[in-house]
Write a structure and sequence with these properties.
Layout (H helix, E strand, L loop, with lengths): L1 H7 L3 H15 L2 H19 L19 H36 L2 H5 L2
Helix pairs in contact: 2-3, 2-4
């Protein structure tokens, strides 16, 4: 069970990133919820960096960390972060398209 908990902590960032992407793609209040949660997790991860330790070792000297799992999470995160950037850019594009239609010369002049 200890092996599970040592390795499960590597899933926090991928899970939060996927939830953030889902929130951004849903739009509205979900977009802001996703971005705020992502920011809060980034700050929490930064503030607690000194208490994160490497994977612990068993009494025989073997690591509880699973290298293949850790590498899989690392390589999974590359497309997740690319998707995150695309989702954010798409949401900004949607906002700009809607905002540009709302502000026009006639609405500024009052004609």
């Amino acid at each position: 069970m200890k092996t599970f908990f040592v390795n499960a902590r590597y899933l926090i960032v991928p899970v939060m990133s996927v939830l953030t992407i889902a929130g951004i793609l849903l739009g509205g209040v979900y977009a802001w919820t996703g971005v705020i949660l992502f920011g809060m997790n980034t700050v929490a991860d930064t503030l607690t960096r000194n208490i994160h330790h490497r994977a612990e070792f068993a009494s025989d000297g073997t690591s509880y960390g699973r290298k293949r799992f850790q590498y899989a999470v690392m390589y999974f995160m590359l497309p997740v972060f690319i998707t995150f950037q695309i989702a954010l850019a798409w949401q900004i594009h949607q906002y700009v398209d809607n905002a540009s239609g709302a502000i026009s010369l006639t609405s500024l002049v009052g004609a």
